[in-house]
UniProtKB/TrEMBL annotation:
An individual GO BP term: nitrogen fixation
Lineage of the organism: Bacteria, Pseudomonadati, Pseudomonadota, Alphaproteobacteria, Hyphomicrobiales
Pfam families on file: NifT
SUPFAM superfamilies: NifT/FixU-like
Name of the protein in its database record: Putative nitrogen fixation protein NifT
Gene that produces this protein: nifT
Length: 69
């Protein structure tokens, strides 16, 4: 699924899922650099993100894979 990742004013990261009209904070990251790992959203969803360079600029739209609950 396509998701947009951006930084909020507080420096925290959020994800927006256009098809679901859903915006949630990222509450946990498997890898400190986020890319190529699994993240957990505030609503409990777990998404696997693609491998990208650590210095990738945000906001950015990427293809993420939703993992089973």
């Amino acid at each position: 699924m396509k998701v947009m990742i951006r930084k909020c004013t507080e420096g925290k990261l959020t994800i927006y899922v256009p098809k679901k009209d859903l915006e949630e904070p990222i509450v946990e990251m498997e890898k400190p650099e986020m890319w190529g790992g699994v993240i957990t959203l505030g609503n409990g969803w777990r998404l696997e993100l693609p491998d990208l360079p650590v210095d990738t600029k945000l906001p950015l739209t990427v293809e993420a894979k939703k993992l089973a609950d």
